[in-house]
Design a protein that fits this description.
By secondary structure, the protein is an alpha+beta fold. The protein has 3 domains: 14-74, no CATH class; 80-111, no CATH class; 116-201, Alpha-Beta Plaits (2-Layer Sandwich). Helix content is 44%, strand content 17%. It is built from 7 helices and 5 strands, in the order H-H-H-H-H-E-H-E-E-E-H-E. The longest helix is centred in the middle third of the chain and has 21 residues, at 92-112.
């Protein structure tokens, strides 16, 4: 600063104010005569009063720096990030295993709620049978959790005046259409045959 009067050349500027604000004490006149002269001059221009023009004691000069260092140590801007970095990261194998398990759980949940509509045909032995009575007997006898019979049935012609029962039921994943057909065939005195004609997942 010996070759010029101010920070930026020969006239006072905001750069001088900014630099002045960075000083914590008056520069040592013995060690930094040019800085001391500039500091006193800028202080006068800015109307600063009550300056201690004697050089600060070494301990006093070191105290602000030590306090500042302690404050910086206490305040860790990235403290949370360090804690996150310490957390173990999921490996690719673990991630794939987790995704597979989640997919299986979703599939199992979907299958647990799955319903199937089953259509069957029931043929009697002769024309004298009351098929509506037979159908009612079947729906009231074969009762299972998750099994729901249709509210009505249809009577279709087979041959020689014989008709067959066409009806439906809805079942869950824990029900079996084969089991239902088998139970109907156990009514062997009234049922000649029973077969599934269609199955549709709802």
């Amino acid at each position: 600063m010996g070759s010029k009067s101010y920070i930026e050349g020969w006239s006072f500027s905001p750069a001088d104010s900014e630099m002045f604000a960075k000083f914590e004490s008056v520069p040592d006149a013995a060690k930094f005569p040019h800085s001391y002269r500039w500091y006193i001059h800028v202080a006068a221009l800015q109307g600063v009063r009550g300056l201690n023009l004697s050089p600060p004691a070494p301990a006093a000069a070191a105290a602000p720096a030590a306090a500042k260092a302690d404050a910086e140590d206490e305040f860790d801007v990235f403290g949370d990030d360090d804690e996150e970095d310490d957390e173990p990261k999921e490996s690719r194998a673990d991630m794939l295993a987790r995704l597979k398990k989640e997919a299986e759980e979703r599939t199992a949940k979907k299958e647990a709620n799955q319903r199937t509509l089953v259509a069957i045909e029931i043929k009697p032995w002769d024309v004298e049978q009351d098929l509506m009575v037979l159908w009612k007997k079947i729906t009231e006898t074969i009762v299972q959790d998750g099994l729901k019979w249709g509210e009505s049935c249809n009577l279709a012609d087979v041959a020689y005046g014989i008709k067959k029962i066409q009806c439906t039921f809805v079942m869950g994943v824990n029900n079996s259409s084969d089991d239902v057909v088998e139970k109907i065939l156990e009514m062997e005195d009234e049922v000649q045959s029973c077969e599934v004609t269609s199955m549709n997942v709802l």
